Amino acid sequence: MNGNNTPTDNVVSELLEMGFEFPIALAAIEAVGPSLYDAVDFILTGSCNVKFEPSSTQEHLNNAYGTSSREACTSKNMQRSFDSKDHMKQALITDHLSSSVKLEKSEPLGSSDTLAGGFNIAKSKCGPLHKPDMVQSSSIDYRKMLSVESSANDMTLNELPTEDLCSLKNDNSSFHSTHWSQGQGIDSKWETKVNFLLKNYFGISSLKSFQKEALEAWLAHRDCLVLAATGSGKSLCFQIPALLTGKVVVVVSPLISLMHDQCLKLSKQGVSACFLGSGQPDNSVEDKALNGKYNIVYICPETILRLIAPLRKLAETRGIALFAVDEAHCVSKWGHDFRPDYRRLSVLRKNFRTSSIRSLEHDIPVMALTATATHHAREDIIKSLHMSKETKIVITSFFRPNLRFSVCHSRTSSVSSYQRDFKELIATYSRSRIADADSKRKSIADTSDGDESSEDDVYDSNDEASSDKDNIDDGIEDNELSVDFLEDELDLQQNVDDIDVTCGEFNADHPVKDQALYNPDEVISDPVEPVEKFRVTQESLGEGTTIIYVPTRKETVRLSGHLCKCGIRSAAYHAKLPKRHLRSVHEEFHRNNLEVVVATIAFGMGIDKSNVRRIIHYGWPQSLEAYYQEAGRAGRDGKLAECTLYADLSRVPTLLPSKRDAEQAKNAVLMLSDCFRYGMATSCCRAKTLVKYFGEELISGQCFLCDVCVSGPPKLENLKDAAAIFLQVAAAQYGLIEITKCSYSDAIYSQTARQKYLERPNFNMLMDKIWERAKGFSERGKLWWRGLARMLEDKGYIREGDDLVRVSIKYPKPTELGMRFLEAKEDLYVYPEADMLLSLQNPTTSTYASEWARGWANPEIRRQRIQSLKRKRGGRKKYPRKKKVDLKTVRGRLKAKLVKKI
Ligand SMILES: Nc1ncnc2c1ncn2[C@@H]1O[C@H](COP(=O)(O)OP(=O)(O)OP(=O)(O)O)[C@@H](O)[C@H]1O
Ligand SMILES: [Mg+2]
Asked: Where along the chain is composition biased (Acidic residues) (predicted)?
């Protein structure tokens, strides 16, 4: 940040970076002064704390977005919001945990310093443990949170006072002693014991087969790599060993919020746990963890590297049953979420083996778990973690039979696209709200009124046709990043912690006692269920929540604003927003108070909410790994859920900026390229493509649900002639064929022209030649040829002339295989892909460069072109003219900055 900037300048730039509009940022600063924290509060919450009731949402929106934002920012409204600021201020660091938190007035709270030390969870008042909103309905007792030591802290399985657990204790006392030795007490009956634990702690009737395999590997003291679909239940594989042995299980996890949520869940299930993040260490929680007070200790990779020595001690005293590396794809440079610290976890293997700790009978096993790792990534994980040669690899099907995948063309990010693409979503939520309880009649009336007007306001069906046409961009190759992408988007490459505590402790609450509460219907279905269940179904998706992933922070704010305007309870989520807001969004989402969260990929790993019905990607994801991981957050209850990718199929996606070395950059392009091909495909089942990417063949051959399975592929075409011309032109340019052999009449170039292009003719040059010479193909736009070139490249007929890796070929050079195809004059039956179909639906008269250039010499043509350009400009966003700005005033300086940014 510039040293000359005033505090106001800095706050405004920060707000702009967060995605807020300039006038709103200014208005907020005028209202609350140059405090970033207060300004964000002011914008996001208006006159109240973040609430997502329809009325307040509307107000919140009016304050934050669009034309109404200006009205809302009148001094009266601002004053009202400002007056209530104190009311919404976060009093304590832990306030963000839950709005259902109950403060015990009789006992004053300590200072926030004390609170930062950690917190204990009181007994749950919630219902069955496996209820999706169980975590939300809990209450946190701050009195207990403040107690330095709770007797429950030391509670082990043996001491839990329920009848069931007493019987468990009697049954399994041998393996709950502090010095339980792996191998002792675990006999052939281990499965019965595990089933007992499953029922009592997790409300689950039996292990899935992959969980059983992973546990068997652990029992045999083997390292294990578990690859199982998102939401399939990988956590149990490392939670059970802690309960079975009474030893500690250390889990490496990448995010504090993820660790926090898992600890909270475990405490409800009767398992004590804590997490140790990477911030300022809290010695009391850390000490207790290292003294073996908790069954499960979650640690972020940086911290575990710091704690190797005390962990070795722990291994010798209470004992460590297992090291689990969760979200293990973070280890791999070939993965989509690489974390350098994960790579250093090989220290675990080195430091916790019999050769380095004498009292150990066996090396402490390492279990790595992930839902998304290709073959390459798997090898990398095993190698990087120094896992043993005997590592057992447990793989389950990646297939999620209840997910309906589809791809739609959309320009995205333009308001007209929002109106068209989210019309159905808005209608769905409006309908479900209208069908709500009578007691909410008033708010229903408000909402439906709002919807009607908003539809009138925002949706104009006439607009659809015109914007559809606008949507096709035959200019294709646009590798330049938009202004939005040029902002600092580095954090988009990573998930974000929406919690600002560095550690926390969670004591075991009572596990489920009443088996009658256990409802098998609510348990997630096995991922390899027969597909018949969902076959040919158009059943409604039903109620539930939606996550929309967008590529930029600005867009989270913009799209969420649009949805709110249309009456949807929606909120934005991205890494730059204050943690308190993020945590609040997280919780309101889990409580079903929010219908839609519009987020960057910061709304990340480990979102374990059962009723997410739709995952919408609004813009190209960066890899299929990331896409599948994010899509996997839908339908965890086993019911039908939808995963839709809206992308501009006429444009080649670009990589978001990030620090990458040459190898990573190459790999990132390859991953993006696979993603692009997934979007373009029209003939292969989406689910099949996705699981194949992870090395699995779909047994049923297709999912019967996705857009391709439902609509079927397009008509098969023989593109032999087009392919031949493309290859001939390319081969002639490279001098690979005798010019006289060209089948089209005048493909002969002058020697100088040939010389000029000989070195490396690019795709556009080839297009000019094709249109110039092969008149029969003039109705096929560049987009169509781009599709054909991609097919030829995939078949190995052409390759990049400069040997660089690109998402879409730039310098097509025929290969030997391509030349053989050309000579053999073979048929080429293919299904046209998405961009080819798009091009044919919106034919444009193709002009080749030389003709186009000559046009400028003709005054009449020149006049027409200039006029048409002006017309086009008129219809587009008008950028502010460079006005003279007064650099002496704050407003002037900010305006100058804004104009510069644009
Ligand atoms: N054997 C089982 N039977 C029924 N439900 C189970 C079983 N094992 C786990 N589950 C449930 O599956 C849900 C998801 O579990 P978990 O969070 O461990 O998934 P995951 O595989 O780690 O997902 P992710 O890849 O997103 O991290 C949990 O609610 C859990 O209770
Ligand atoms: Mg998990």
From this structure: 448-465
